[in-house]
Amino acid sequence: MSTPSSDPADARKSSESILTQQIEEALSQFRRSTSGLFLSGVSAGLDLAFGPLLVAAMLTITAGVYDEPLREILAGTVYTVGFIFVILGRSELFTEHTTLAVLPVLDRQVSLRALGWLWGVVFAGNILGSAIFAVFAVSFGPAFGAFELDALVEIAEPFTSHGTLALFGGALLAGWLMGLLSWLVVAARDTVSQLLVVFTVTFVIGFLHLPHSIAGNVEMLAAAVGTAAVGLSDYGRFLLVATLGNAVGGTIFVGLLKYGHIVRGDTGLEPRGARRTDD
User: Fold this and answer.
1) Model-level pTM?
2) How many whole angstroms separate alpha carbon 143 and alpha carbon 122?
3) Taking a C-beta distance cutoff of 8 angstroms, is the pair 215, 81 a contact?
4) Domain extent listing, the chain
5) Is the separation of the CB atoms in 229 and 141 below 8 Å?
6) Dist CA 220 CA 50 (whole Å)
7) Which long-range contacts (CB under 8 A, 24 or more apart) does 65-72 make?
8) How far apart are CA 99 and CA 224, in angstroms?
9) Contact yes or no for 18/45 (Cβ under 8 A)
């Protein structure tokens, strides 16, 4: 057995090992049953919704108490809670799979049809879970005193006030960050490091109000159900544009680029479909 190295550089995982681990993790999801994958997606949608719920509660109790910059920082902070629940809890989130599930396709181990199946099942589960939570939250939240409906309007406002192109650009950045998150979580060597990675990346998404298709589904649907400020057309536009932007951002800016620079670099690593290994 080898002894741990004291060299900090040796403590870091190589890009090749991260890629290999990412591909193996993705392949394990492709092997799951449809029902198991769907239920994991539902669980992720439900758990993720605690972030927007806490944002609404925080905006309610700090209205007129704290200055706007501090409220923005606090909103970004509590927004991360749902992502911590989902990612450390190992349930399946669509925006992670915009990078993770693409890697086996690039490695010639999985077909595009299988990728579409996985994306569809996970996305449907995420949307259902987050929608159930949104309707439930609107039903009990104001009555229980957890938050006021005005907070839902405040949360949804950045997504309804921007044009489609700006919304898509923000969603692309959110997808890029979520893809990067899936990569960094694998690169991290312990739970504390993973926690810090999840917090940092998702804080950026929350602080900048970047459109995340699943978390935003909670925010927009809750505002549409509970208030007159957000219409169904606003909700539909958001969900479509955010989903497309997230998918493009995660696939291109992380999946394709990370895979490409490792496989086509000087590492000697080739797509599995093109390489032959000796036992």
Assistant:
1) 0.90
2) 32
3) no
4) 13-264
5) no
6) 14
7) 72/207
8) 30
9) no
Residue with tokens 């509590």: 78
From its phi and psi, is residue 254 left (phi > 0), alpha (psi between -120 and 50) or beta?
alpha
Sign of CA dihedral 180, 185, 186, 188: positive
Within 8 A by CB and 6+ apart from 102, the residues are 115, 250, 251, 255, 256, 259
Candidates 1.10.10.10, 3.40.50.300, 1.10.150.40, 1.20.1080.10; CATH matching 13-264: 1.20.1080.10
Q: Which two tokens stand for residue 69?
A: 């910059």
What does the pLDDT profile of the chain (279 residues) look like in tens digits?
433 444 444 457 899 999 999 999 999 999 999 999 999 999 999 999 999 999 999 999 999 999 999 999 999 999 999 999 999 999 999 999 999 999 999 999 999 999 999 999 999 999 999 999 999 999 999 999 999 999 999 999 999 999 999 999 999 999 999 999 999 999 998 999 999 999 999 999 999 999 999 999 999 999 999 999 999 999 999 999 999 999 999 999 999 999 999 998 755 566 665 443 444
